[in-house]
Design the sequence.
C-alpha cells in the first residue's frame, strides 16, 4: 500500500506538484492522468525519489521512503519509462538481470528468474535471451522493459507512459497483457498517461491532475457519474461517457431470465461489447453463458439501455 | 479530447537548480584561476635575463623585474582579477577583468625588458618567463570561460578577435616590446620573416584552394556514384593516416626523379626537395575533409526538398547550384575550416624538406637551442590557425543561420 | 572481413616486418635512387631498433594521455566537475589549433633534447582527441538509458562503470586511435630533437641528400601508421559489435 501525503514540489517560484494526497491499495492499479505539464510525471518520480519532494511524504507499507537509502528504495520499486531506456550494450537477459545482480542474487536464481519472466511475457527464452535491444520490435522492447522492472519481484511498479511509443494495435494488446500479468502477480501499479482511454482500460482508480493539483481521485465509474469539476467532466468526454460506463460493467449486471436465439455472449464480457454485438447481428436479445458454456439467461438491448440509464 | 499532448516538462526543470545558488559564493573554476595567479605572482620569475641569446638565463621575480610603480600596478591588477575570478560569477564582469589583466601584463613585460636590460648592452636578452606565461594563461582561461558562457554570436566573436588582434598590433607597432628577445630575433630577420610568412601562407592557402577546386567536383561525383564513394573515401582516409614527414619523404623520390629527367619540370621549379613535395602533400591531406564533407553535406539535403525542386522543373544543374550546394554549404565550409587549420599547422613541417614557411625558424631555433627563435616561428603559426579557426567557425555559423 | 581485405592486410604486415628485420633484401629497389655509390639501405643503425623505440614512445605517451584524458572527461561530466565543462570544451577546440610541432619545439628549451620533449609533446597533444571523444561518448549516452539506470537504483559509480563507460567505449577508442596516429607523425619529427625513432632515417637522408633513405623512412612510417590505424579500427568495430551496436563502415 502506498500513501502519498501532502506531496509538493517547487522549482523556485514554480509549483509543479501542489499538496497531493492519495492512497493506492495493495494489488491495484492507480492511473494518473492529465494534460502535459500537469505534474503527473513529477508526482510519479517523487515516489521513487528521482525527484526529491519539497514537502510532504510518501509511505510504502507504512514506511517513510525518506528513511530508506535512495538506491535501496529503487531496487524495491520497478520503474518503466516511455522508450523503456533498455541498455543498448546488454542483451535482453542481461538487461533483465540488472537489479537482481545489484542485489547479489546467485547466478542460478537469476537465470531461473530470466526464463520465468521471458515465458511470462511470451518471449521464447532460447530465441530472445541473447538478443540486443536494437534487434527487437517496439512491442518486444516494451515487454522486456516491463520484465526488467519486475525482475526483482518488486511489490510496486511505477510506469511513466509505458505504452506511449507503441502503435495502436500493439498498444491495446500490451495493455491487456499488463492487466493479466498484474492480476496474476498482485503487483501494485502506479501508471502515468495522457490517454483517457488507457486510464479507463487499466485503472482501478484514476487520479486526474491539472496545473499541479489533484482534481479528483476515484473509481472510473465515480469519475464518470460524479465528476468533481468541469475540467474532469470535459476530460472524460461527455459524448463518450455512456459507452465508457457500459464498458466498465459486466453482462452479469443486465442479465435477464429467459432464452434467446443466436451465438451466446459470455457473462464476463462488458455491456459495451454485448451492445456492440446486438447492434451488429441486428437482434434485440442474445443468450448468455458462463465460462463452462452453461446457459444463464439472456441480455437485451432494452435491458442494457435501462441499466445504462440507471447508473448515469 | 481524449488524448492530451505529450509529457510534462517537469524533469527538465531540475537543471534550473544550480543557477539559483548565491551569486557571490566561491566559484570553483575561478578559485583554480586565482590560485594559478597567486603562484605566478609569488613563486615564479616574471622574466628571464640572459647575457646573450644562447647562454642559460636567470629568472627575475616580479619585484626585480619592474620599477616599484610597475610592480604595484601588476600586483593590483593581478590580485583584482584573482578576487574577481574567485568571487564574481557574472561572465561579463569576468571577461572585463581578464581583459584588463591582459592589458596590464602584456605592456608590462615589454617595460620589464627595457628595465632589466642594462643600458647600452646589445647582447643581453630578456624573455617572458613562467610567471608571465602563467598569468597570461590564467587570464586567458578566465576570458575563454566567460566568452564560452556568453555564447557570443558570430559577428561578436569576430569583433572580439579583431579587438584582441588590434591590441597586439598596437603593442608591436608602438615599440613597447622592442626590448624583448623575441622582437630582437625578429629585428635580425625582418626580411626573411616576411618572406617565410608569405611562403607559409602560400603553402597553406594555395594547397587548400587546389584541394577545393579538385575536392568539390570529386565530392559531388562521389555523392552521385555510390561505389566510387567508398573507394575514394577509403583511399583518402589512408593518405590522411600517413604522417606528414613520411608523406613528404615518399613524394621526394618521384619528384626528384621528375626534375632530374624532365627538363620542363625542373624549369617549372619542381624539385625533389623544396616546396613542391610539401605543397602536394598538403593538397593530398586537404582532399579528405573537403570530399568527405561535401558528400556528407549533400547527403543531408532533405529528400523532400530535392524532390520539390525536381517537381518545379529545375534541371539537374539548377538543382545542384540553387538547392543542393547552398544547403550543403555549412558542412562543406566546416570541412574547409578543418583543412585550413590543419594546413597552417602542417606547413610548419615543410621547412624540414626545404619548403620554407614559419617552420624554418622553429627548426633553426631547435638547432640553436634558441627558444625565442622557436617562438618566432611558433607564435605566428598558432596565431594564424587561431584566427582562421575563429573566422571560419563564425562563417559556418552565419551560413547555417541562413539555411 | 573479406578474404581479399585480409590478404591485403597480411601482405602489408609481412612486408613491413620483412623490411625492418632484413632491409638488405630490398636494396635492389632503392639502388636506382642513389647517386655516387651512396648506400641504398639505411646503415647508421638497425631499422628494427628504431621502429621499436618509435613505437615505445608512442605507446607510453598514448597510455599516459589516455589515463589523464579519460579521467578528466569523466570528471567534467560529473555534477562535481560540471563547472569546468564549458571551458574544457573551448580549450580542446583552441588546443587543436596548435600544430603538434609547435608543442614539440617549445618543449625542447624547457626540458632539453632527447626523448623527454618528444614524450611531452606526444602526451600533451595526444590528450586532445581522447578528451574530446570521451566527452562526446559520455554525453551521447541517451538520457532515457540513464534515467532507467537511475530508476533501477544504480548508484552514480555503477551508472558510470556499467552503463556510461561501456556505451562510450567505441568513441573513446576512436579518440585513442586518432591520438596514436598523430603521435606516430609527431614522434617522427621528434628525431629532429634527437629522440630515437624512424624520423632519423628520413633526416639522415635529407642531410646527406640520399633520396633512398628518405623514401624508405617514409615508407616504413607510412606502413606502420596505416596498419595501426586499420588494426585499431577493426578493434573498435569489434567492440561496438559486442556492445550490440551497428557501426558505419567508413569511420
Sequence:
Amino acid at each position: 500500500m502506498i500513501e502519498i501525503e501532502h506531496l509538493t514540489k517547487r522549482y523556485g517560484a514554480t509549483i509543479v506538484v501542489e499538496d497531493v494526497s492519495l492512497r493506492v491499495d495493495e494489488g491495484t492499479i492507480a492511473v494518473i492522468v492529465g494534460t502535459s505539464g500537469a505534474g503527473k510525471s513529477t508526482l510519479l518520480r517523487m515516489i521513487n525519489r528521482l525527484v526529491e519532494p519539497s514537502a510532504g511524504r510518501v509511505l510504502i507499507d507504512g514506511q517513510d521512503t525518506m528513511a530508506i537509502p535512495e538506491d535501496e528504495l529503487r531496487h524495491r520499486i520497478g520503474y518503466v519509462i516511455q522508450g523503456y531506456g533498455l541498455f543498448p550494450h546488454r542483451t535482453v537477459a542481461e538487461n533483465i538481470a540488472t537489479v537482481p545482480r545489484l542485489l547479489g542474487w546467485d547466478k542460478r536464481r537469476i537465470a531461473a528468474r530470466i526464463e520465468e519472466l521471458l515465458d511470462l511475457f511470451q518471449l521464447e527464452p532460447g530465441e530472445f535471451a541473447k538478443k540486443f535491444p536494437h534487434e527487437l520490435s517496439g512491442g518486444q522492447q516494451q515487454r522486456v522493459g516491463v520484465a526488467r522492472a519486475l525482475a526483482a519481484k518488486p511489490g510496486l511498479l511505477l510506469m511513466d507512459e509505458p505504452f506511449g511509443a507503441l502503435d495502436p494495435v500493439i498498444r491495446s494488446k500490451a495493455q491487456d497483457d499488463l492487466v493479466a500479468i498484474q492480476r496474476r502477480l498482485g503487483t501494485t501499479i502506479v501508471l502515468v498517461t495522457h490517454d483517457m482511454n488507457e486510464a479507463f482500460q487499466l485503472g482501478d482508480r484514476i487520479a486526474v491532475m491539472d496545473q499541479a493539483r489533484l482534481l479528483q481521485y476515484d473509481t472510473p465509474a465515480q469519475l464518470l457519474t460524479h465528476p468533481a469539476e468541469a475540467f474532469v467532466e470535459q476530460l472524460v468526454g461527455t459524448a463518450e461517457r455512456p459507452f465508457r460506463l457500459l464498458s466498465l460493467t459486466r453482462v452479469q449486471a443486465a442479465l435477464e431470465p429467459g432464452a434467446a436465439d443466436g451465438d451466446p455472449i459470455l457473462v464476463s464480457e462488458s455491456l459495451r461489447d454485448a451492445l456492440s454485438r446486438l447492434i451488429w447481428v441486428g437482434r434485440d436479445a442474445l443468450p448468455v453463458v458462463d465460462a463452462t458454456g452453461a446457459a444463464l439467461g439472456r441480455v437485451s438491448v432494452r435491458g442494457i439501455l435501462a441499466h445504462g440509464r440507471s447508473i448515469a | 479530447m481524449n488524448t492530451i499532448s505529450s509529457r510534462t516538462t517537469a524533469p527538465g526543470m531540475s537543471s534550473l537548480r544550480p543557477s539559483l545558488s548565491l551569486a557571490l559564493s566561491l566559484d570553483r573554476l575561478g578559485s583554480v584561476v586565482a590560485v594559478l595567479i597567486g603562484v605566478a605572482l609569488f613563486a615564479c620569475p616574471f622574466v628571464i635575463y640572459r647575457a646573450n641569446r644562447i647562454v642559460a638565463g636567470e629568472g627575475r621575480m616580479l619585484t626585480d623585474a619592474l620599477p616599484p610603480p610597475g610592480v604595484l600596478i601588476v600586483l593590483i591588477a593581478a590580485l583584482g582579477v584573482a578576487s574577481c575570478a574567485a568571487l564574481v560569477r557574472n561572465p561579463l564582469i569576468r571577461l572585463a577583468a581578464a581583459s584588463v589583466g591582459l592589458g596590464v601584463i602584456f605592456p608590462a613585460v615589454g617595460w620589464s625588458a627595457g628595465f632589466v636590460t642594462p643600458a647600452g648592452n646589445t647582447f643581453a636578452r630578456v624573455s617572458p618567463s613562467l610567471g608571465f606565461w602563467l598569468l597570461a594563461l590564467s587570464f586567458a582561461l578566465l576570458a575563454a570561460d566567460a566568452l564560452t558562457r556568453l555564447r557570443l554570436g558570430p559577428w561578436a566573436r569576430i569583433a572580439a578577435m579583431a579587438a584582441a588582434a588590434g591590441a597586439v598590433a598596437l603593442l608591436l607597432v608602438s615599440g613597447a616590446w622592442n626590448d624583448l628577445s623575441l622582437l630582437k630575433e625578429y629585428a635580425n630577420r625582418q626580411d626573411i620573416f616576411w618572406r617565410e610568412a608569405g611562403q607559409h601562407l602560400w603553402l597553406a592557402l594555395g594547397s587548400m584552394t587546389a584541394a577545393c577546386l579538385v575536392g568539390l567536383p570529386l565530392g559531388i561525383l562521389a555523392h552521385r556514384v555510390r561505389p566510387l564513394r567508398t573507394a575514394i573515401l577509403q583511399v583518402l582516409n589512408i593518405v590522411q593516416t600517413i604522417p606528414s614527414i613520411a608523406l613528404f619523404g615518399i613524394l621526394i623520390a618521384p619528384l626528384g626523379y621528375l626534375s632530374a629527367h624532365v627538363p620542363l619540370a625542373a624549369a617549372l621549379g619542381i624539385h625533389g626537395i623544396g616546396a613542391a613535395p610539401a605543397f602536394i602533400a598538403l593538397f593530398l591531406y586537404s582532399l579528405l575533409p573537403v570530399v568527405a564533407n561535401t558528400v556528407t553535406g549533400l547527403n543531408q539535403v532533405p529528400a523532400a526538398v530535392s524532390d520539390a525542386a525536381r517537381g518545379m522543373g529545375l534541371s539537374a544543374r539548377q538543382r545542384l547550384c540553387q538547392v543542393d550546394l547552398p544547403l550543403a554549404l555549412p558542412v562543406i565550409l566546416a570541412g574547409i575550416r578543418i583543412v585550413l587549420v590543419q594546413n597552417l599547422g602542417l606547413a610548419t613541417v615543410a621547412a624540414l624538406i626545404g619548403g620554407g614557411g614559419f617552420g624554418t625558424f622553429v627548426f633553426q631555433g631547435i638547432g640553436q637551442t634558441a627558444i625565442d627563435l622557436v617562438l618566432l616561428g611558433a607564435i605566428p603559426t598558432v596565431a594564424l590557425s587561431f584566427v582562421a579557426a575563429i573566422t571560419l567557425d563564425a562563417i559556418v555559423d552565419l551560413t547555417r543561420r541562413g539555411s | 572481413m573479406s578474404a581479399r581485405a585480409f590478404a591485403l592486410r597480411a601482405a602489408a604486415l609481412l612486408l613491413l616486418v620483412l623490411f625492418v628485420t632484413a632491409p638488405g633484401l630490398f636494396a635492389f629497389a632503392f639502388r636506382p635512387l642513389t647517386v655516387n655509390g651512396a648506400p641504398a639501405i639505411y646503415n647508421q643503425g638497425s631499422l628494427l631498433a628504431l621502429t621499436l623505440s618509435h613505437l615505445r614512445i608512442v605507446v607510453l605517451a598514448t597510455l599516459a594521455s589516455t589515463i589523464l584524458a579519460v579521467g578528466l572527461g569523466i570528471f567534467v561530466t560529473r555534477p562535481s566537475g560540471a563547472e569546468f565543462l564549458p571551458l574544457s570544451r573551448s580549450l580542446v577546440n583552441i588546443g587543436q589549433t596548435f600544430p603538434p610541432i609547435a608543442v614539440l619545439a617549445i618543449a625542447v628549451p624547457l626540458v632539453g633534447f632527447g626523448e623527454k620533449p618528444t614524450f611531452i609533446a606526444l602526451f600533451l597533444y595526444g590528450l586532445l582527441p581522447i578528451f574530446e571523444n570521451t566527452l562526446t561518448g559520455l554525453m551521447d549516452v541517451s538520457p532515457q538509458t540513464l534515467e532507467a539506470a537511475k530508476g533501477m537504483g544504480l548508484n552514480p559509480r555503477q551508472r558510470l562503470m556499467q552503463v556510461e563507460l561501456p556505451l562510450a567505449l567505441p568513441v573513446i577508442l576512436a579518440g585513442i586511435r586518432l591520438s596514436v596516429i598523430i603521435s606516430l607523425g609527431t614522434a617522427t619529427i621528434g628525431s629532429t630533437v634527437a629522440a630515437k625513432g624512424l624520423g632519423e632515417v628520413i633526416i639522415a637522408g635529407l642531410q646527406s641528400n640520399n633520396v633512398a633513405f628518405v623514401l624508405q623512412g617514409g615508407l616504413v612510417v607510412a606502413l606502420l601508421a596505416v596498419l595501426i590505424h586499420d588494426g585499431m579500427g577493426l578493434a573498435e568495430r569489434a567492440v561496438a559489435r559486442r556492445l550490440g551496436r551497428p557501426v558505419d563502415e567508413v569511420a
